[in-house]
Design brief:
disordered N terminus; 12 strands; about 30% strand; six-stranded mixed β-sheet; single chain; tt1808, chain A; alpha+beta
């Protein structure tokens, strides 16, 4: 099946059909109940903040893996397809995700994910706060973070977590950049300490 933005999708597609679409079309879309949904507009600053958060989470993951002596393995990614469920096929592209390590050929699914992060913008706020939050919770992803930003970098981080095996999420806390140098200091899913300086748009000195 060929799907483009110039035509109305006549029927839902399967996960396999989604994987068979062109790279550019897949990059700029998510799959919701078998239907392609165009991704929101993302400014350069939006993408930079997502990258800074991912890099900071990766550093925390590396520290934990070294401390654990090889007992755990974590990876981080940005804007990668996360298959939430196959029937009807639904896949989202979080701005950043922390997940358990998996082979290159294996599809990243909700079962692998520990934290998903969405960076809020004018175009994405409702989708991130309502639709994606509900989907990630229903898929059983333990932690969901929402990050707002300004011209300096990340401004607030809202953290949500599941209280059971599935949703809805419970709001754990919100931290603002004016509250101090530490942005995140948590022990679950593993010790993570992020500082605001590392989440600025301009690279650190």
């Amino acid at each position: 099946m060929t799907v483009s933005w110039n035509t109305t999708q006549p029927a839902p597609i399967s996960w396999e059909e989604f994987l068979g679409l062109g790279v550019e079309l897949r990059r700029e879309s998510e799959l919701v109940d078998g239907y392609l949904v165009p991704r929101e507009q993302r400014s350069r600053n939006h993408q930079k903040v997502g990258a800074r958060v991912s890099n900071a989470l990766e550093r925390a993951a590396v520290v934990e893996m070294r401390r654990d002596g090889g007992g755990s393995c974590y990876e981080t990614n940005t804007e990668v397809d996360v298959l939430l469920w196959e029937v009807p096929p639904t896949a989202r592209k979080p701005d950043a995700v922390v997940h358990r390590c998996l082979p290159d050929y294996e599809q990243l699914t909700a079962a692998h994910c520990l934290i998903v992060v969405e960076v809020l913008s004018t175009w994405s706020a409702r989708r991130d706060r309502v639709h994606k939050m509900s989907d990630y919770a229903d898929a059983g992803i333990p932690h969901y973070w929402l990050v707002s930003f300004d011209k300096v970098g990340a401004l607030t981080i809202e953290r949500y977590a599941l209280s059971g095996a599935a949703g809805p999420y419970t709001h754990i806390g919100t931290v603002h950049r004016d509250m101090g140098p530490v942005a995140v200091d948590v022990s679950d899913p593993f010790p993570i300490e992020l500082v605001w300086r590392d989440l600025e748009i301009a690279p650190p000195d």
